[in-house]
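Here is one chain, start to finish.
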Amino acid sequence: MTWYQKYLSVFERPFNNISKSTIGEIRDKLNQQQNDSPLASVVVIAHNEEIRLLSCLWSIAENKCKYPIEIIGVNNNSIDLTEEVFKSVGIEPFFEEKKSCGYARRCGLNNARGKYYICIDADTMYPPYYIQTVIEELEKPGIVGVSSFWSFIPDKEHSKAGLFFYELLRDIYIRLLYIKRPERGVRGMVFAYKAEYGRKVGYRVELIRGEDGSMAFGLKQYGRIKLITSRKARAVTASNTLNADGSLWNSFKVRVLKALKNPAFYLTKQTKPPKDEESNLIK
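Its structure:
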């Protein structure tokens, strides 16, 4: 049985259909995790994530970590029951009116008390030693930020076998990026860094996507961005993001063609921020 199997019992289910006993269990475990003098801030951002947020928080609640942490919630102007989900498990979320991952992550960073800032996305679940593994890597000399791999949850449109091969080749691609361009391999849902330097760099809030890569690019001046390859840090997330390119095969083909377009890309460092695409800017 996979480690996240139990969390699927509440994944993509309306909040009002979840039993009070399950909510109570998650609330009690989250409360035990909270510390007033945290080494790391675990920041969960959510925009209209009522049906996925609870499974994420459950996985965080059951993380085993020897370091003191705090768990922060950010409600990014949701119109569903996201706010109620946070409050039901004892987290009074910060409210960020302006919508974008950049605004939400910046809100969390502004209110974080920990030395380390651990990004958490509400549609993602995290393995039992995720937080501890991330902190241990950030504690190493010269490391300013870390990111890890992630998997997708199989569904009717994405088979387990298909996802396995897709992720295998995708992981190779990310490893190649980390040779010279680690900021290109970073994904916000599995990204963490030293908060002190993150505040100096700041989040780009006007981007639809890519605020995490922009942060990583800025952090490089202060140290190394490391890829964690251990399965202890491999999260699982909803597979709906793959639908942007149609079928799984088409999604894979789009990424492979992009990767092969310029092989020299992987052998040179990026010294200037990439040019913004008009379609990726919030109007």
